[in-house]
Amino acid sequence: MSNTDQGHASEPPAPSRVTVGLDRLGRPVIAGLAYLGGLARLLLETVGWIWRGVFDRSVRIGRPAVYSQIVRVGVRSVTVIMLVSAAIGLILALQMAPPLEDFGQVNQVSTIIAIAVVRELGPLISAIVLTGFAGAAIAAELGTMVVGEEIEALRAHALNPTRFLVLPRVVATTLCLIVITVFSNLVAIGAGYAIGTTLLGIPPGVYRNNTIEILDLADLFTGLAKAGVFGIIIGGVACYNGLTVSGGAAGVGRATTNTVVHCIVAIIFTDLIFTAIFFALGWT
Asked: In 3D, which of 183, 191, 219, 184 has the Cα closest to residue 110?
């Protein structure tokens, strides 16, 4: 047998189109499952440290670190979220008034704004704004620490990064988003009240009574439950993307961008799941 024949005989067969297609489909699926698994592991570890910090006296949660993150994540984002919430209230009032006026139900603007804001738009808009304001910053900060080998320095000193870096940020985003959602609801409803009682001519007493009658505690609690879960998603995704940075400064930029995209997509789909569950339970 000639050398040419031996070379042809040793070549592996070319992959089929089916194999290539499965490979292209399988790689992103496996990468996505690995991402979700790593994120779930980080959140479970964070919950474990919170549990130990509450019930084990030998483990202390760094309260100053939590307070500093609350100021950084929550307090500094309040102004932006309040402005957006006020705009949402004004937009809803102005958009809903013309079609309702055709049926002589302009007064129902108050009920629509109250339900839409408290159940959906309050937590959703607050979470999206907080994602761009705080989520990207958290990912960039932790990613820079990874690039600068500060995370490895913590591990070398027997300091757990989840306990000292992730926990304060996840707790801060969760608590802040719940509180901010309450203020967001009030501002949006107040903006609707202002435009409804002035430009739309709705009597103030009628507007207040419609708002109070249509809302109940279930509406408030469902919105706050969403806000709490959204806060966990923002903190967890931002921390995980930051801690898994690779590739230097370019990797930090990718982690920041991916954090915003991943958080918004996760928040929207989580909101859909919550809404479906509450609809099935008759809470909508």
From this structure: 191
Domain span at residue 215 reads 78-281
Count structural domains, the chain. 1
Look up the pTM and report it.
0.88
Residue 267 belongs to a domain: yes
In-domain check, residue 49: no
Q: Is residue 21 part of a domain?
A: no
Q: CA–CA separation, 115 vs 110, rounded Å? A: 9
Rounded to whole angstroms, what are the CA distances from 82 to 76, 85, 100, 189, 220? Answer: 11, 5, 27, 11, 18
Residue with tokens 């907080």: 130
- The answer on pLDDT for 274 being more than 80 is yes
Residue linked to tokens 């100021």: 71
Average pLDDT (201-217) is 91
Tally Cβ neighbours within 10 Å of residue 18.
8
- Whether the per-residue pLDDT at 7 is higher than 80: the answer is no
26 is a domain residue: no
CA distances from 165 to 46, 68, 146, 237, 240 (A): 10, 12, 12, 13, 11
Average pLDDT on 191-210 reads 92
Residue 160, CB half-sphere, CA atoms under 13 Å: how many?
14
Q: Please write the tens of the pLDDT for every residue from 145-154.
A: 999 888 888 8
